[in-house]
Amino acid sequence: QLQLVESGGGLVQAGGSLRLSCAASGFTSSDYAFEEYAMGWFRQTPGTPEKARDFVAAIGWSGDATFYADSVKGRFTISRDNAKNSVYLQMNTLKSEDTAVYYCAAQVRRTYKIGAEDYWGKGTRVTVSS
Known about the structure:
This protein is mainly beta. The chain is built from no helices and eleven strands. The strands form two sheets. Strands 2, 4, 5, 6, 9, 10 and 11 form a seven-stranded mixed β-sheet that branches. A four-stranded antiparallel β-sheet has the order 1-3-8-7, with no helix packed on it.
């Protein structure tokens, strides 16, 4: 079963940058390869229910199909390295409202479809101080 592990979270001042990583593992010879998963990032404000995870960004198989939530467009960039079974979220010009737990998600699709997630990571916390 696919496992996703996020890293890179932490405390940063407003206006600063962070780069989140999500490493996928657990592949077997009968599983889909990492490059067959579309990947996404979501975030959840601490104290809100799980269903309140908000979409942040997503990327398709080859990395050329990306889309973003309006709130992060122009500030965040999603990318992937299929050779390293990893997806990244570069976050620039961070704001206090970006404070959240960030989750990585995967689905067996060429291009990402919100709501069709097959796997989730356990999250990494980002705190932006004003």
